[in-house]
Design a protein that fits this description.
Elements: H1 10-27, H2 37-56, H3 61-88, H4 95-112
Helix pairs in contact: 1-2, 1-4, 2-3, 3-4
């Protein structure tokens, strides 16, 4: 199937949904975390979808893979941050975020290899 824009990519759609969810989850974090874990998680999740989008508009395969690898690395950061958040703020619901992250990471892994 030919895609016309990065927005047609299922991996990007999942990363977008994950970003929206992480913003909602971190809205429930204490305000003193605004420049700590909240900021880190939000930057990591935005990096995933942004780098997928940027990879779409690169012409050379090596460049595409570089941006997808950065997205994958940001996903790993987010995975670690979710684990920490689960300990610090256990009242939040993380299951859907973990599911979306896993699906996104699996897709990126397939594309990269």
């Amino acid at each position: 199937m030919k895609t016309n824009t990065f927005k047609d990519l299922i991996v990007w759609q999942k990363s977008r949904d994950l970003a929206v969810l992480i913003y909602k989850i971190t809205d429930n974090f204490p305000k003193e975390e605004m420049y700590g874990l909240t900021s880190q998680m939000r930057r990591a999740v935005i990096s995933i979808s942004s780098n997928i989008a940027e990879s779409y508009h690169r012409f050379h395969e090596k460049e595409k893979k570089q941006f997808l690898a950065i997205a994958f690395g940001s996903g790993s950061e987010l995975e670690s941050q979710i684990e920490i958040a689960k300990i610090l703020f256990p009242k939040n619901e993380y299951a859907r975020a973990e599911e979306l992250l896993l699906e996104t990471m699996k897709m990126l892994n397939v594309i990269l290899h």
